[in-house]
Write a structure and sequence with these properties.
The complex is a heterodimer. Chain A is built from six helices and seven strands, in the order αββαβββαααββα. By secondary structure, chain A is of the alpha+beta class. In chain A, the strands form two sheets. Chain A has a five-stranded antiparallel β-sheet with strand order 2-1-5-4-3, sandwiched between helices. A two-stranded antiparallel ribbon of chain A has the order 6-7. Chain A is elongated, with a radius of gyration of 19 Å. Chain B is 61% helix and 8% strand. Chain B has 41 helices and ten strands. Chain B has a five-stranded antiparallel β-sheet with strand order 3-4-5-8-7, with no helix packed on it. In chain B, strands 6-9-10 form a three-stranded antiparallel β-sheet, with no helix packed on it. In chain B, a hairpin with a 2-residue loop joins β1 and β2. The chains are: A alpha+beta, B alpha+beta. Chain B: Belongs to the adaptor complexes large subunit family.
């Protein structure tokens, strides 16, 4: 497990923190009262968020309806709260009547938002489950893997959660399904490659 | 993919973005990439689509707009190849949300893919549908999904099950269709399918009573057996987490048992054994085990009474609470709040530990612990707990003080055994965290102080002492100057000394120093300064020997930048000048005892809206109704009457004329609460002129022996406004008094006439909901109206997720504050929400508003709409 905890910090990524999300203008909405915009959610997980220590978003997945504006607002608010919390505090933050469970692995914060009465400890397990699957897939996963292969991180998440609920408790099964799909993509690529080779030959 | 393509690869784009050193540089790179992608989209080359969308998703994650790529997702999804579909669905879930209409265009592709021969394509479609489907799509595609629950491959079955949970959440009517399919999933051996099947059943049980009954009858025993098997199963490496076999499945099963056992003694009985087994046998040294225990305790607390199990649950929580892991302690605090409901004593035993948690360095734990402590307080332990909390208030973080002081205040108010203790504790809180204390809290304190007549001397001395040390705490200063103004003589003469007090010597000068300090300090706000000014006026009569000094201080405020202060200073100055000649005793005498019951009612009504306490003493006071027109009327005769006070018997003349003793009638009307509920009590406190006109109107009516007269000044006021005769009579009396104020301008009195003239309206009424609006105008701004909307649930069902939305035409501006709650309890439950409307065509057009109300009743969404046209004119 130690190997996981030390998700290596990419040396390239030493730029100072500056949140791009900040540059988006958020206009306050006068017609509707503010809290009405937030999802009147159900389901165990409302959204998943991966944020780097510098506040960069590495993955976002929304299971309850949030508009784009709300999404950037949520990300900005939460990364502000979570990145500023000290190291030995508990992994839960109360936020707008919801709870956000987060866990830090090396330079990355994995956050999941749940209802106030849901089981926080289980969500910690789900986060860890996800990290273990990522680790197995990439082989000692680090932040750079998730940056350059962000779509793969999404594919894996989609095999783990649907509609904010967990769908598979076996890491092996997830790995098997992902690799079966990867093989299909590879096969299609080879085929396309050979076709374009033939076209190139012909011309 | 395309070897002839000129555009950069995804990897290269990410690299170049990461190489940027400034935000501007990054924007440049992204702009160029977006332009390339747009160009490529326009060329419509299918080979680049895949890569374009991948790039767009990365750009989207950085927070840039990517709407122009939405159609590309649809094209990719519609293409035959698996790689294209895979990225297309990913883009669909990432770039779109269920509210976008583009999504409707994908329904057909989804339908085709759900029937695809390749199971992985079916899986992609199910996943996308489960994550973003809207209600319409749910209806259209439900039959396909229902069929797929029986699919041969478990991978598809589990996805279809979760997809169904989303569908029934979106369209609860469809729940019945899924009951049979869901119950078949409970017999599965495959863990993924079982987990999702249990989840689907749980979902169905929560939204459909029939489903609940069905599963309770048919499946309870089967589920218990499954749970027993999994708990007792041998080590399975595939599912093992820290010694527990599949904690996720454990938790789902316990959750479903919870809804099945809740409210049903038979089902609860059946599960007793297995719950006891899980509670005792589960390893609690790792998070996974604790997660299972957590769920087990939740289930034990929710099912029908089995007291031995509950002891077990409480013991687990006790163990959690003493755990070193912060997460576990947090969870324990949270759950103990629920446990109080059935075993208060057991929770009380952990009081000391819980109090320690209030002082934890972790804000999340502190907050939970504080909530829990406030639930633990009762008459017996209030003194001890309050002492602990106040002691901690001194050393707590600044940002925690607000929460903490609010909690202490509410505890003290609720459980205080005696007044002196209440006053003591409140003074301590104000001294330590006065700047965080809300207005209604210190208003309540003043109300209590006026009611405790035997403690006036004690309180004012304690406040004086506190002021000397903690003069930076705004609300402490306010209460102190109010009390010194009222009870200054008790302070100086050490009246009503209690045995516990240390004697202090305060001269009249010292007392005035305090007020002067408050009024001259630059960071005092308007309310404080206005209160200080009133206090000075009062002290000028209490301390005749230094009234010259007081006059000087008041005069200085003539130069204040605040109009209100200027005006008051001028008025008060002329009052003080005439002091020596006229017996103004009734004007500056002590405030009558404030009525606690009325205050509490009013406070409860306006709690979430912190009422603006800007001191406008005589402008918007309710009693001003009678006074206001009088001043106008009197303008013509003012010269004559002005002459009267110059004679030594001026006031006597007025009183004689009316034949009443002002002093005694003040006692009568003083006891009556202020007649109109539209203003804040504080304004009454501040309004020095209040008692007089009210009394005079009463007495005037007395004099004229009008019908149905009584001592209730509010009825008197009503009579007053309707009948002309008493009007004139009061004119004479009140006018005489107001004239003495010389410079009273007619403009605020105009407003005073308007002020309470807006009656509350019933804005909307349906069979289940009633909405009432009450209005008030912030003075000085006739265009703006503050509306307090009260939503009353008149149905026998509780409303949840209550949302009020309003729209107004262009000439109006509307601002909504958050509502006090989003839940309305059944049978008369209330929620209030404040609205501020600015009418740019004030005087020409009246207010109009469309509104929409959404809430959940019995799990069903209800939407009500309406237009409100019956606003009072002139708002």
């Amino acid at each position: 497990m130690d190997r996981l905890m030390s998700l290596c910090v990419p040396s390239l990524n030493l730029r100072m923190h500056r949140s791009l999300i900040d540059s988006l203008e958020i206009q306050s909405c006068y017609l509707l009262s503010e809290h009405s915009c937030l999802a009147s959610g159900f389901g165990s997980i409302h959204f998943v968020l991966l944020v780097s220590r510098q506040g960069k978003v590495r993955l976002t997945k929304w299971y309850s309806p949030y508009t784009q504006k709300e999404r950037s607002k949520v990300i900005r608010e939460l990364s502000g709260v979570i990145l500023n919390r000290g190291p030995k505090l508990c992994n839960f933050v109360e936020w707008r009547g919801y709870k956000v469970v987060y866990k830090r692995y090396a330079s990355l914060y994995f956050c999941m938002c749940i209802d106030a009465e849901d089981n926080e400890l289980e969500v910690l397990e789900i986060i860890h489950h996800y990290v273990e699957i990522l680790d197995r897939y990439f082989g000692s996963v680090c932040e750079l893997d998730l940056i350059f292969n962000f779509h793969k991180a999404y594919y894996i998440l989609d095999e783990l959660l649907i509609a904010g609920e967990i769908q598979e408790s076996s890491k092996k099964t997830v790995a098997r399904i992902i690799s079966a799909q990867d093989e299909m993509v590879e096969a299609a690529k080879e085929e396309a490659g050979s076709i374009s080779y033939i076209i190139a030959q012909a011309s | 993919m395309n070897p002839f393509s000129s555009s950069t690869r995804l990897r290269d784009m990410i690299r170049s973005i990461r190489a940027c050193k400034t935000a501007a540089e990054e924007r440049g790179v992204v702009r160029k990439e977006c332009a390339d992608i747009r160009a490529s989209i326009n060329e419509n080359d299918p080979h680049d689509r895949h890569r374009n969308l991948a790039k767009l998703m990365f750009i989207h994650m950085l927070g840039y707009p990517t709407h122009f790529g939405q159609m590309e997702c649809l094209k990719l999804i519609a293409s035959p190849g698996f790689p294209e579909k895979r990225i297309g669905y990913l883009g669909l879930m990432l770039l779109l949300d269920e509210r976008q209409e583009v999504l409707m265009l994908v329904t057909n592709s989804l339908k085709q893919d759900l029937n695809h021969t390749n199971q992985y394509v079916v899986g992609l479609a199910l996943c996308a549908l489960g994550n973003i489907c809207s209600a319409e799509m749910a209806r259209d595609l439900a039959p396909e999904v229902e069929r797929l629950i029986q699919f041969r491959d478990p991978n598809i079955r589990k996805k279809a099950a979760l997809c169904s949970t989303r569908i029934v959440r979106k369209v609860p009517d469809l729940a019945e269709n899924f009951i049979n399919a869901a119950s078949s999933l409970l017999k599965e051996k495959h863990h993924g399918v079982l987990i999702t099947g249990v989840q689907l059943c749980y979902e169905l049980c929560t939204i459909n009573d029939e489903a609940l009954e069905f599963f309770r009858k048919k499946c309870t025993e089967g589920l218990i057996k499954t749970l027993r098997d999994i708990t007792n199963s041998a080590y399975q490496p595939e599912y093992d987490v820290a010694g527990i076999t599949d904690p996720f499945l454990h938790i789902r099963l316990l959750k479903l048992l919870r809804v099945l056992g809740h409210g049903d003694a038979d089902a609860s009985d059946l599960m007793t054994d297995i719950l006891a087994q899980v509670a005792t046998k589960t390893e609690s040294n790792k998070n996974a085990g604790n997660a299972v225990l957590y769920e087990c305790v939740e289930t034990i607390m929710a099912i029908e009474d089995t007291s031995s199990l509950r002891v077990l649950a409480i013991n687990i929580l006790g163990r959690f609470l003493s755990n070193r892991d912060n997460n576990i302690r947090y969870v324990a605090l949270n759950m103990l709040m629920k446990a109080i409901a059935f075993d208060d004593q057991a929770v009380q035993r952990h009081r000391v530990t819980i109090l320690e948690c209030v002082k934890d360095p972790d804000a999340s734990i502190r907050k939970r612990a504080l909530e829990l402590v406030s639930l633990l307080v009762n008459e017996n332990n209030v003194k001890q707990l309050t002492k602990e909390l106040i002691d901690y208030l001194e050393i707590s973080d600044e940002d925690f003080k607000e929460d903490l002081s609010a909690k202490i205040c509410s505890i003290v108010e609720k459980f205080s055994p005696e007044k002196i203790w209440y006053i003591d504790q409140m003074l301590k809180v104000l001294s330590e965290a006065g700047k965080f204390v809300k207005d209604d809290v210190w208003h309540a304190l003043i109300v209590v102080i006026t009611n405790a007549s035997e403690l006036h001397g004690y309180t004012v001395r304690a406040l004086y002492k506190a002021f000397l040390t903690y003069s930076e705490q705004e609300t402490l200063v306010r209460v102190a100057i109010w009390c010194i103004g009222e009870y200054g003589d008790l302070l100086v003469n050490n009246v009503g000394m209690l045995g516990i007090e240390d004697p202090i010597t305060v001269t009249e000068c010292d007392a005035v120093d305090v007020i002067v300090d408050a009024i001259t300090r630059h960071n005092s706000d308007m309310t404080t300064k206005a209160m200080a000014l009133v206090a000075l006026l009062k002290l000028s009569s209490r301390f005749p020997s230094i009234s010259e000094r007081i006059k000087d201080v008041i005069l200085k405020q003539k130069g204040s930048l605040l109009l209100e202060m200027q005006q008051r200073a001028i008025e008060f100055n002329s009052i003080v000048e005439r002091h020596k000649n006229i017996r103004w005793s009734s004007l500056v005498e002590r405030m009558p005892v404030l009525d606690e019951a009325t205050f509490n009612v009013r406070r409860a009504g306006s709690l979430p809206a912190s009422v603006s306490t800007m001191a406008k003493p005589s402008v918007s006071i309710p009693n001003g109704v009678s006074a206001a027109p009088l001043v106008d009327l009197l303008d013509l005769g003012s010269d004559d009457i002005l002459a009267a006070p110059s004679s030594s018997s001026g006031a006597d003349f007025l009183q004689d004329l009316l034949g009443v003793d002002l002093g005694s009638s003040s006692a009568q009307s003083g006891a009556t609460p202020a007649p109109k509920a539209s203003t804040d009590l504080l304004l009454d406190i501040l309004s020095i002129g209040t008692p007089s006109p009210a009394q005079n109107s009463t007495s005037a009516i007395d004099l004229l022996s009008t019908a149905d007269m009584n001592n209730n000044s509010s009825t008197a006021l009503d009579t007053l406004s309707s009948s002309a005769q008493p009007h004139i009579a009061t004119t004479a009396s009140a006018g005489g008094m107001f004239d003495l104020l010389d410079g009273l301008s007619p403009s605020p009195s105009k407003e005073a006439t308007n002020g309470p003239a807006y009656p509350p309206i019933v804005a909307y009424e349906s069979s289940s909901l009633k909405i009432e609006f009450t209005f008030s105008k912030p003075s000085g701004n006739p265009q703006t109206t503050n509306v307090e909307a009260t939503f009353i649930n008149i149905s026998p069902n509780t409303f949840t997720d209550f949302v009020f939305q309003a729209a107004v035409p262009k000439f109006l501006q509307l601002h909504l504050d958050p509502a006090s709650s989003n839940t309305l309890p059944a049978n008369g439950g209330k929620v209030t929400q404040n609205l501020r409307v600015t009418n740019s065509q004030h005087g020409k057009k009246s207010l109009v508003m469309r509104m929409r109300i959404g809430y959940k009743m019995n799990g069903k969404d209800v939407l009500e709409e309406g237009q409100i046209n019956n606003f009072p004119r002139g708002l």
